[in-house]
Amino acid sequence: MGGTHAQVCRIGGSQMSSFIVNEKCNGCLACVQNCPNRALDYRDHAGKRVLMHNMGLCARCGQCWRVCPEQAVEFRHLLESPWQEVVALGLTACRVCGEPVYTFDYGKKVSEKLRMPAEALCPAHRREKGLRVWSRIRPASPPSPGGAR
Question: How far apart are CA 75 and CA 79, in angstroms?
Fold first, then answer.
């Protein structure tokens, strides 16, 4: 009896950001049919079945993992997904102590909004500066009668 040999094609090693389907998957669609949020879908095209996962729709409920008869969904990766760096921005440091205060881009935006340069001071040094300015504006009060302050 003649038959066709189904070729398995793994896209990107079958790994997306934190959803993994291993080599045991046989395309039965139990996961797709039982996903309560419809975060799984498939397309049959050009002789291949492609399973798709949408992390934006996924509730991480584990239903796909529970219903897969082949144990092809590696759900632990949905729970243990690592932090991924998405951007790295240059920092402006406090001009007094060197503690990071804000990013270059944020400082530029604040300066544009204020129409003056943003002063690079950490919260502690900003507070000290405010106290010095306030003491110049409002000099120490003379002692009240009776010696009470």
Answer: 7
SS3 label, residue 39: coil
Q: How confident is the model at residue 96 (pLDDT cuts 50, 70, 90)?
A: very high
The predicted-structure confidence for 8-46, as pLDDT tens digits, reads as follows 334 444 334 567 888 999 999 999 999 999 999 999 988
Q: Rounded distance, CA 79 to CA 26, Å? A: 24
Contact 30, 69 (CB under 8 A): yes
Q: Domain locations in the chain? A: 11-79, 91-137
pLDDT at 80: 65
Residue 147 burial class via C-beta count within 10 angstroms: exposed 0-12, middle 13-18, buried 19 and up: exposed
DSSP string, 81-132: PPP-------EEEPTTT--EEEEHHHHHHHHHHHTSPPP---HHHHHHHHHH
* 34 φ/ψ angles, rounded to the nearest 5 degrees: -110, 5
Fold entry, domain 11-79: Alpha-Beta Plaits (3.30.70)
